[in-house]
Structure formats: structure tokens, C-alpha cells
């Protein structure tokens, strides 16, 4: 019919953020492909949600998530949680979008006649309903819940509202604060900041009252598009789909000017110069990404000595070489340098975002490394911070202790590599003085375990990606045993780095998931975990222990893992199933890891 | 303002996913496949964006054919 654009071409166009991108055409093509969608999104609320799906569909695709939608009937956000349709749909995420005015029409029509006590009751009553919904959704689904907050309407009292005791403005600030706290207290819920999104669009450009009266959702296309964008940001967080590393160009990206020509004191960055201030602000923003657990790397065409000199002499710059997990500085092409960085960090190209001010470099990276998300910086450095903020790729629903210490982990890894280079592998492992705690996962592990499940590609036998709700079920359902391993060595904590999920089915004990963070690979920890699994197997009354290997493009390191562990293989087509009977259990030696109990 | 009927038919056809050459200018939207209430809103907002006009709620409700849509530009 009208759509001739191929999928690959469309994704490229989405990827490049093409201004010519036709929203309608793309939305249609995506809808036709909905059957292949990997992410199930349910929309619930008391506004006309159908208007939003085309926008959510396209914005989700921009972050690489093909989505299918279930839209609950208008206003039936409570009832639909109990419906069969939702159970069958099995959502990964549920978005709850409520209009405060539609929730309590009588109260809001006469808000200014209500007593202060009645307004407090109104807030509590609305919060009870929303919290009731969240708790019910947590119980009835395995989805992550994305709950929108409430924009404040313009007040009928004008500026006097601001000086009134618990006026409308104060009411909404308080309601949204209560909502933020309620959502924060529930690990499987996230807040969607509609108030902030509307501010970015600008209320005059965001609200179309005609559409409120005609259609039951008074938003302009611009607002629905922005809603789609904040949804996409939340989705990356909810699915644990954030990219791992930001690769940065130097000249005219991190500072103004060219170091090879302007010298370390000629480049513009720092206080007292308007352009220098803009680059300084950008560096501070980038440095803050480290708090989210994003690795930073440099890829620049320069003499390495010149770059080192800049960092040595310009210690007034927010970013320093010690902030970088990897660097590729020289005269190779950028895509070659980016490949080196990925190998050095042991992560895939699809875990990288690259920023550069040079359109030719960006085009070459898009051509030769299409998995890298390459972003062209705009001409003026004062716009750089906004460009970075608008990227959805670094969103996390919550930060874990591992996130905050990630760059440090990689720095420690460099210390370990130096040790490794200097001695025989076995001496190296013994020299690390490793201590592991292999234990049953508890509620405090939920976020880290969910994160590991969703970002581990290499040492991952089945590459299952359970939702947070499914992880919770593994912790509570007696048929499951969810085992985690924490590791530390003489260089420091590596944190929780391995997961094994066992499921009892009849007389068989199945290893449904077995995965290990790349930061722990090559240390033999997998043997210690498998020994623990085998011990659990022998202590149970199960007759056999089973495992599977599902090959992917990335999990080459686990090929032959179960063979190596003494299992017998059975051919299973796109997967290999393995079995081990009690008599064949053999433990593997890994005495270089000392086991601790926690 | 003069309106190019082909442009308008392309706009409507694109939204309701019907070949523009098969849309009857005078056919009531209830009888045009795909022109449901949601599509109607999308047609109106796309029309407003393309021609830089803003229709009243009554106009939006009263437009039942492509021809009536084109006539709002004369009124605007």
C-alpha cells in the first residue's frame, strides 16, 4: 500500500533521528509488525489512551523496543487488572495515566469551596486509590508499573491561590510529592514525570482544550510526542536496556578548539570565558553519568602525548583521564578506535553511544558500526547538555551500589590485568585472594539481580530476560531456588556477579538460568557456583539435574559449559539440553576461591 | 485560500489507509472505511498543521466529507 519503507531503512532513519522521519508511516509499519513485538505494554487510565498508542509505539521503537499494546477500557484501570485479557497479554510494563479532574470531578469543580481538611482528605483518598492500584498490579502481574503524576491546572483564584492555605497549587505539589514517595517505596514501580514533560513542551503548546472536550484527552500532538519520549526513557530503565558506555570525541566536543593547534592552554574550557563555561557545563554533565554506572571512554584523532599533556596541565577540567574506563587516541579511524574500546571493556558495540561534533566521523561510524548509537553534536556548545539529557540510552529505573562504583571496578580490573600480565594464570588466580559468598537471593537483591539478568550477554546459558515480577516469583515460589554469588578480591568488591535459578519439576531439577557478569569471567567462579548447585542437587531427592544452552550471537564463552561440567548432551535443535544423574556428579576444584557464609 | 484537492486526499488517505484515488469527496465519513472518530481527530490535527489553521469544535464536529474539510479553508 502506501508504505514502501523497509524495516532496516526505518530503523536507520529512527537511529539517525532523521527530521524527515514520517511519524504516521513509521507507526503504521511498526503496527503491522506488532506480532513480532518483544515488549508488551498495557495502558490504563481515565483519559482516551488510544490517542497515545501511535506515539508510544514510535518512541519505543526509537530505543530499539518493538512494542505491542493492550489498552484497557476507559476508566477501568482497577477492573482490568482482574480481567482475563490482561492476564493473556502478560504485560512487561503497565502505564497508569490518570486525570485528577476525571478521578474526582465533583471535588475539583468546587475545590475552592472545600475546607482545608476536605482538601487533605481528597489528597489522601486519591493516594489511597493509586497505591491500591499499584499494590494490586504488583500482585496480579509481573509487570513494571509506570505511574504518571498530575499536572496542576491554572487556578481559578489567580495569584491569590499561591497565598491560600492549601490552595490548588500547593495541593498538586503535595499530591505529586506523596505520589513520588509512594512509588519510590515500591521496587517494581516507577514514576512518569508528566508535569516535567508538559513544562518542557510549554503548557500553551501542550494543552488543547478542544481535544479535551471532543476526545477526552486535551493534549496536542507535541505533548503526546513528548509523553512518548518520557515513556521511552522510562522503558529503557524498566527493561534494564541502558547502554553501558559513552564514547567521547575531544576537540570541539569536550573543549573548544583543537589541541594540536591551540595547545593545552589555548583550548576553551573552564570559567571566565562563555564558550569555556559551556564546555565545562557539558563535562560536568558527562561526569554525572558515572553516578549512573555509565562508563566513559575517549576516542580522538590526536597525538596521545598532546592529550595527556592537556589532562596533566588542565586539572581545572571536571573530566580527568582517571574518569575514563578506556581510551583510543591516535590516527586510526574513529570506528576502529571504537572497536578497540569495546574489546578493551569486553562489551558489545550495541552497548556504546558515541558523541562527536564532526558529521563525517558520525556518518562513518553509522556506516561501519551501525550498532553504535552515534550522535552528532550541534554547532553551538551551549546546546550540548540538552542533547545529552535527551538521550534515553542511559536511563536506569534505580541505581544500585554496583552502578555507583562501576568505573572503579574497571580501574581495579586494570590493576588485575597488570598482575595477570606478570605471572602464570594459576598464580594470578591465587594471587587475587578471592572470597565468594554463594547464597539464596533475598528481597534486597531484587534490583541487582534484575539488572544482571537484563544486561548479561556473554556468560549466559539461556539469555532469559525475566521481568522484575518474574524475579520476585523466583524468590518466593518454593519450586524455585534463586542463587546469587558475591565476589571480592584483594583489589576490592566486585559485588553480586553471578546468578543461578533452579526450578524443581517433578523428579527433575532444572537449571533455568545461569549467568555471570563479564567482570567476573575467567576466574573459575562458575565452578564454585556449579559445585554449590550439585551439592543442592545431591541433598535433594531429585533424580536428575538438567541444564540448557541456547546459543546467541554473544554467548560464545559458554559453549560447551555443561559438557565440561560432566552433563550428557541431547540434541534439541536451536538449543542443547543436558542432563546429569546423581551417580555422575563430580565436583570441580576451585580452591583459589575461598567460600564465605553471609 | 485555494486548496489542492490532491494534497488533501493524500492527507486523508494516508491517515485512514485508503488509496486517495478511491476516496469520494462527497462521501459521508460514516461510510468511508477507516474514518472513525480517532482517525477524524488525526485528520483534523494533520490538516491544521499542514494549512496553519485552527478549527472550532463545531467545525470539527460538522465536517463529514473531504469537500467540507476543504471548504473550511475558505471560511478561515
UniProtKB/TrEMBL annotation, chain A:
InterPro entries: Acyl_CoA_acyltransferase, FkbH_domain, HAD-like_sf, HAD_sf, HAD_SF_ppase_IIIC, SGNH_hydro_sf. GO terms for molecular function: hydrolase activity, acting on ester bonds. This is HAD-IIIC family phosphatase. It comes from Sphingobium fuliginis (strain ATCC 27551).
TrEMBL record, chain B:
Residues 2-76 form the Carrier domain. InterPro entries: ACP-like_sf, PP-bd_ACP. SUPFAM superfamilies: ACP-like. It holds the Pfam family PP-binding. This is Acyl carrier protein.
Amino acid at each position: 500500500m502506501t508504505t514502501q519503507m523497509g524495516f532496516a531503512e526505518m530503523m536507520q532513519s529512527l537511529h539517525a533521528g532523521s527530521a524527515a522521519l514520517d511519524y504516521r508511516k513509521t507507526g503504521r509499519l511498526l503496527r503491522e509488525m506488532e506480532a513480532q513485538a518483544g515488549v508488551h505494554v498495557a495502558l490504563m487510565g481515565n483519559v482516551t489512551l488510544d490517542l497515545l498508542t501511535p506515539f508510544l509505539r514510535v518512541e519505543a521503537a526509537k530505543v530499539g523496543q518493538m512494542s505491542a499494546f493492550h489498552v484497557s477500557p476507559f476508566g477501568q484501570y482497577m477492573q482490568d487488572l482482574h480481567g482475563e485479557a490482561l492476564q493473556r497479554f502478560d504485560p512487561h510494563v503497565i502505564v497508569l495515566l490518570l486525570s485528577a479532574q476525571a478521578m474526582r470531578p465533583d471535588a475539583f469543580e468546587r475545590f475552592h469551596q472545600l475546607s482545608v481538611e476536605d482538601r487533605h482528605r481528597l489528597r489522601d483518598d486519591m493516594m489511597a486509590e493509586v497505591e491500591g492500584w499499584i499494590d494490586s498490579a504488583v500482585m496480579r502481574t509481573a509487570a513494571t508499573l509506570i505511574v504518571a503524576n498530575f499536572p496542576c491546572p491554572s487556578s481559578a483564584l489567580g495569584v491569590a491561590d499561591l497565598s491560600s492555605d492549601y490552595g490548588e497549587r500547593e495541593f498538586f505539589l503535595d499530591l505529586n510529592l506523596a505520589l513520588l514517595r509512594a512509588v519510590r517505596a515500591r521496587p517494581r514501580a516507577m514514576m512518569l514525570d508528566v508535569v516535567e514533560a508538559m513544562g518542557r513542551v510549554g503548557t500553551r503548546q501542550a494543552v488543547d482544550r478542544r481535544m479535551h472536550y471532543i476526545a477526552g484527552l486535551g493534549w496536542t500532538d507535541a505533548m503526546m510526542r513528548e509523553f512518548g519520549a518520557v515513556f521511552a526513557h522510562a522503558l529503557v530503565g524498566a527493561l534494564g536496556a541502558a547502554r553501558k558506555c559513552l564514547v567521547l570525541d575531544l576537540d570541539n566536543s569536550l573543549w573548544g578548539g583543537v589541541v594540536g593547534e591551540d595547545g593545552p592552554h589555548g583550548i576553551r574550557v573552564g570559567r571566565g570565558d562563555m564558550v569555556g563555561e559551556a564546555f565545562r557545563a557539558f563535562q560536568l554533565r558527562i561526569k554525572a553519568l558515572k553516578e549512573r554506572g555509565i562508563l566513559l571512554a575517549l576516542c580522538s584523532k590526536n597525538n596521545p602525548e598532546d592529550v595527556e599533556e592537556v589532562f596533566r596541565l588542565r586539572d581545572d577540567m571536571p573530566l580527568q583521564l582517571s574518569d575514563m574506563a578506556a581510551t583510543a587516541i591516535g590516527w586510526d579511524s574513529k570506528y576502529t578506535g571504537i572497536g578497540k574500546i569495546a574489546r578493551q571493556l569486553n562489551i558489545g558495540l550495541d552497548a556504546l553511544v558515541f558523541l562527536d561534533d564532526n558529521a563525517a566521523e558520525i556518518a562513518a561510524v553509522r556506516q561501519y558500526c551501525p550498532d553504535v548509537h552515534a550522535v552528532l553534536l550541534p554547532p553551538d556548545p551551549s546546546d550540548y547538555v540538552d542533547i545529552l539529557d535527551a538521550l534515553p540510552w542511559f536511563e536506569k529505573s534505580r541505581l544500585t551500589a554496583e552502578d555507583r562504583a562501576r568505573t572503579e571496578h574497571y580501574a581495579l580490573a586494570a590493576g588485575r590485568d597488570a598482575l595477570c600480565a606478570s605471572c602464570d594464570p594459576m598464580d594470578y588466580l591465587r594471587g587475587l585472594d578471592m572470597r565468594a559468598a554463594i547464597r539464596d537471593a533475598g528481597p534486597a537483591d531484587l534490583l541487582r539481580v534484575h539488572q544482571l539478568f537484563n544486561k548479561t550477554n556473554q556468560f549466559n546459558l539461556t539469555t532469559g530476560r525475566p521481568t522484575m515480577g518474574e524475579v520476585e516469583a523466583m524468590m518466593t515460589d518454593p519450586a524455585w531456588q534463586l542463587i546469587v554469588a558475591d565476589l571480592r578480591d584483594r583489589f576490592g568488591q566486585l559485588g553480586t556477579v553471578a546468578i543461578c535459578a533452579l526450578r524443581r519439576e517433578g523428579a527433575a531439577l532444572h537449571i533455568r538460568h545461569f549467568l555471570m557478569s563479564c567482570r567476573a569471567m575467567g576466574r573459575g567462579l562458575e565452578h564454585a557456583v556449579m559445585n554449590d548447585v550439585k551439592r543442592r542437587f545431591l541433598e535433594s531427592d531429585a533424580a536428575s539435574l538438567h541444564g540448557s544452552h541456547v546459543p546467541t550471537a554473544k554467548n560464545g564463552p559458554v559453549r560447551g559449559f555443561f559438557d565440561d561440567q560432566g552433563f550428557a548432551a541431547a540434541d534439541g535443535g536451536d538449543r542443547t539440553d543436558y542432563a546429569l544423574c546423581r551417580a555422575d556428579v563430580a565436583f570441580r576444584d576451585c580452591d583459589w576461591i575461598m567460600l564465605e557464609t553471609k | 485560500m485555494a486548496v489542492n484537492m490532491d494534497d488533501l486526499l493524500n492527507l486523508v488517505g494516508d491517515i485512514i489507509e485508503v488509496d486517495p484515488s478511491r476516496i469520494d469527496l462527497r462521501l459521508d465519513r460514516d461510510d468511508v472505511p477507516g474514518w472513525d472518530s480517532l482517525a477524524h481527530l488525526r485528520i483534523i490535527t494533520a490538516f491544521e498543521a499542514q494549512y496553519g489553521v485552527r478549527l472550532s469544535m463545531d467545525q470539527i464536529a460538522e465536517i463529514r466529507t473531504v469537500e467540507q474539510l476543504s471548504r473550511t479553508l475558505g471560511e478561515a
